[in-house]
């Protein structure tokens, strides 16, 4: 399937079911108690692991989300092995991603404020592709520009003012389109 083709609801639900089965197996092996909730969000399967035990759930999130990131990558590979198609499913543990998105949004807004006050570009700390995508989206919504720099795992985002008087609108659209494609491939 071409990357730009939309997946049907049936295909998304199939990916979610495969992912849920895979994660249930992992949780059983690790002897973790947890419920798995399935859904579709923004055209992507969403799998949420929820548990009553705060200790277990914290282990599934890990330091800075490292464990939930690993669970997502492993689950995507399991779905790809089953379907033959690359999956963009999202795995979340106990609402971690929602909290992380809010932190990233706040960080992006702080950078936007600083750039607007000083007129100088602001470099943010290195981030993974999910984090950079959130930053890029917020910055664009606020009317500024951003660009990723560096090599993994040290890629970071720079936020800066648009200089529309020096750039054609077409150049801005091309820059944004390139950034979106790059971020999608990294995800």
From TrEMBL:
Boundaries of every R3H domain copy: 98-163
GO function terms (MF aspect): RNA binding
Organism ancestry: Bacteria, Bacillati, Actinomycetota, Actinomycetes, Bifidobacteriales
InterPro entries, per database record: KH_dom-like_a/b, KhpB, R3H_dom, R3H_dom_sf, R3H_KhpB
Species this protein is from: Bifidobacterium dolichotidis
UniProt name for this protein: R3H domain-containing protein
Record-annotated membrane-spanning stretches: none
């Amino acid at each position: 399937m071409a990357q730009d083709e939309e997946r049907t609801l049936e295909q998304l639900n199939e990916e979610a079911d495969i992912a849920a089965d895979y994660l249930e197996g992992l949780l059983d092996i690790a002897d973790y108690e947890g419920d798995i909730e399935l859904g579709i969000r923004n055209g992507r399967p969403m799998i949420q692991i929820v548990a009553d035990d705060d200790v277990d759930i914290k282990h599934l999130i890990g330091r800075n989300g490292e464990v939930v990131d690993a669970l997502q990558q492993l689950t995507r590979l399991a779905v790809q092995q089953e379907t033959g198609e690359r999956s963009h499913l999202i795995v979340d543990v106990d609402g971690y991603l929602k909290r992380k998105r809010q932190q990233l949004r706040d960080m992006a807004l702080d950078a936007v404020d600083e750039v607007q006050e000083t007129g100088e570009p602001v470099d943010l700390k290195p981030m993974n592709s999910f984090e950079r995508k959130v930053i890029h989206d917020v910055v664009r919504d606020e009317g500024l520009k951003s660009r990723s720099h560096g090599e993994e795992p040290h890629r970071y985002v720079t936020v800066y003012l648009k200089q529309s008087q020096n750039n054609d609108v077409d150049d801005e659209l091309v820059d944004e389109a390139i950034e979106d494609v790059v971020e999608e491939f990294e995800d």
